[in-house]
Protein: VOC family protein
Amino acid sequence: MNMQETRRFYEEVFGFEIVQHNTVSMMVRLGGQHCYAVVETGKPTNMPLLNHNGLDLGSVEEVEKAHELLSSVASEYGIRKITPAQFQHGNFGFYVCDLDGNWWELLANPPGGYSYVFDEPERDLTGREGFDEVALRSFMPAPPRLS
Structure:
């Protein structure tokens, strides 16, 4: 990891607000109180895609614009991989692997984000057993639609 290259990517591409509070770490955020700690460990990062970070965008159109932008600057900023934008698990988005091997999902969520899973008790499978994939799909209500 090169702290200055990483900072440049996060500021210029993602638009993060950044405070570098020492030589090997910085705090980043985007339009809210939630922060990510970025730490230079001296070891390569190989974050699995399923352990990704998330950035909520305002609409399907914003996701499409972000995908186009990231695709156009991928070589300049050392972006390792960008998946196609698509509808999946109740939202529209795509994944990008940054120059340090961290995965990010940029997505348009339904109104309220993922909070609908807390508003519908039937979604909680705690204590339930014996579901297979087909049964789960037929049991679970569809997520709210994107507007």
Observations:
- Helices lie at 3-14, 60-77, 116-119, 133-139.
- The chain has four helices and eight strands.
- The chain has a mean pLDDT of 88.
